[in-house]
Amino acid sequence: MLICPADPDDAAPIAAIYAHHVLHGTASFDTEPPDADYWRTKIVDIIDRGWPFLVVKVNGAVVGYAYATQFRDRPAYAETCENSIYIAPLYSGRGLGSALMAALLPAASKAGFRQMIAVVGGGEPASIALHEKFGFKTTGRMHNVGRKFGRLLDTVYLQRGLDNQA
Asked: Are 81 and 68 in contact (CB under 8 A)?
């Protein structure tokens, strides 16, 4: 396993990983997966802003990714980020999400973020457990705000400080 910064050439496997979650899960409220060109642009934009976008590779293949972006566009949110972590389905449950989170937290702090927010679509238990393992606390739940696969879904918000910030 190798965790390293994403490269625009990683866009195709990232698109495939995300597409699986869009089409089969509720962690993302997207209903149509974006293509590799979208991801190539997103990777470049995040890197150009100095924010972390990481991939985890097994035997040279991208099998997961994580990134942190400013939580909202308004200037007062400049020190608060939102994370995203996705793992290829064949590699879930192997600790790769934890490895990515362990690398993402200090990278986000180094990028100047002081707080990290997780927005967990569908209240996915595995995602909540991952975040709680790393000290995130649930700060809110929005009930029935999404609809996917014929179900109404909640969104759970979790938060933690970076660099021991409250």
From this structure: yes
Q: Distance between CA atoms of 16 and 62, rounded to whole angstroms?
A: 10
* C-alpha closest to that of 78 among 125, 36, 114: 114
166 in any annotated domain: no
DSSP letter at 124? -
Of residues 21, 69, 64, the one with CA closest to residue 45: 69
Instruction: Encode pLDDT of 107-148 as tens digits.
Output: 999 999 999 999 999 988 999 999 999 999 999 999 999 999
CA distance 126 to 124: 6
CB distance 123 to 154 below 8 Å: yes
CATH of the domain at 46: 3.40.630.30
- In whole angstroms, give the CA distance from residue 161 to residue 23: 32
Burial 110-133 (b: 16+ CB within 10 A, else e): ebebbbbbbbbbbbbeebbebbee
Residue 148 lies in a domain: yes
Domain extent at residue 53: 2-161
15 part of a folded domain: yes
Assess if residue 19 is contained within a domain: yes
Query: In Å, what is the CA distance from 63 to each residue of 68, 94, 162?
Result: 18, 11, 26
Number of domains present in the structure of the chain = 1
